[in-house]
User: Which sequence fits this backbone?
């Protein structure tokens, strides 16, 4: 670990001042500290923001608002969230060990860095870590890498389960800097790698994530998250599917579907959603819609199996959320 200055922000103004000068924010620290130990991250200054008042969970008729410093375990256990947004609870409880969920913040979860083994190996070529260095994963070990949203510069998957669920729910992040607040839809928050994979999101420099806002909808209440992985605990997704469905009168009024473990960002599936809208639930419909889940996929040497796996994962989760397995 390289030397760095550490401070604790007593209030929001102090945190934003530090951020404007280039300090990195830390809350739970479950990702940043690991990367600093591995010398992947080398900040000159780190500021602890745990004293800031971003810990409320509130629900009204139109939205759920979650403070960025709420811990993962706290949000997963919240009674209203479990009832009205089961997809959030399921994504969180499948995300990590209980110990990590007790420490990790909701805002920090969204800001995770890639799990790519080459990104975390400072001796390997990685454009996310060192722009212009190349991408060792493209010609290397890439079983866990992305098949959607990739580029010649990067094929790393996005690591967050929660972000996949939130994109399916059309959630937004409220962010704050010294110029004020703005709201960014999570579908627009994360950036595909393109030629600049080091630019992972659209959070302004020095800005804080203050809260997440999730619309209250009929689809959110009928929702769920399925994660397929090599082992049943403490493992990242090979594929995952987040489905929210408005089903009434025997007809699918609308559906929102996003997938993880296969995309460089949480990946929405508008073609799958369009195939479901206005249709009556059936095994044939799930198969037809699921078959569209890998449209545009570009598999690598070791992850071609993900093409079929994501189709089956989406098909299975559509049936489960509809109550017709």
Assistant:
């Amino acid at each position: 670990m390289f030397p760095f200055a550490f401070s604790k922000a007593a209030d929001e103004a102090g945190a934003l001042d530090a951020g404007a000068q280039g300090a990195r924010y830390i809350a739970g620290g479950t990702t940043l500290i690991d990367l600093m130990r591995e010398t992947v991250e080398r900040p000159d200054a780190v500021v602890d923001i745990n004293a800031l008042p971003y810990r409320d969970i509130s629900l009204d008729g139109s939205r759920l608002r979650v403070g960025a410093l709420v811990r993962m375990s706290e949000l997963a256990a919240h009674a209203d969230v479990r009832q009205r947004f089961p997809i959030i609870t399921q994504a969180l409880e499948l995300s990590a060990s209980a110990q990590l969920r007790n420490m990790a913040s909701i805002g920090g979860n969204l800001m995770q860095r890639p799990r790519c083994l080459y990104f975390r190996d400072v001796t390997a070529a990685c454009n996310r870590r060192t722009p212009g260095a190349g991408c060792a994963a493209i010609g290397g070990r890439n079983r866990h890498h992305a098949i959607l949203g990739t580029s010649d510069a990067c094929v790393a998957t996005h690591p967050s389960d929660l972000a996949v669920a939130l994109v399916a729910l059309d959630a937004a992040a409220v962010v704050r800097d010294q110029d004020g607040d703005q709201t960014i839809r999570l579908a627009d928050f994360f950036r595909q790698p393109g030629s600049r994979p080091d630019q992972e999101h659209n959070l302004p420099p020095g800005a804080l994530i203050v809260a997440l806002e999730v619309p209250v909808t009929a689809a959110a209440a009928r929702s769920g998250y399925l994660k397929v992985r090599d082992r049943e605990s403490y493992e990242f997704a090979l594929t995952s599917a987040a489905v929210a469905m408005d089903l009434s009168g025997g007809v699918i009024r609308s559906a929102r579907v996003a997938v993880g473990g296969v995309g460089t960002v949480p990946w929405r599936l508008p073609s799958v959603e369009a195939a479901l809208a206005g249709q009556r639930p059936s095994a044939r419909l799930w198969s037809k819609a699921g078959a569209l889940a890998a449209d545009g996929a570009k598999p690598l040497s070791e992850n071609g199996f993900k093409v079929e796996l994501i189709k089956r994962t989406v098909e299975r989760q559509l049936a489960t959320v509809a109550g017709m397995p």
About this structure: The mean pLDDT is 96. DSSP finds 13 helices and twelve strands in the chain. The first strand starts at residue 5 and ends at 8.
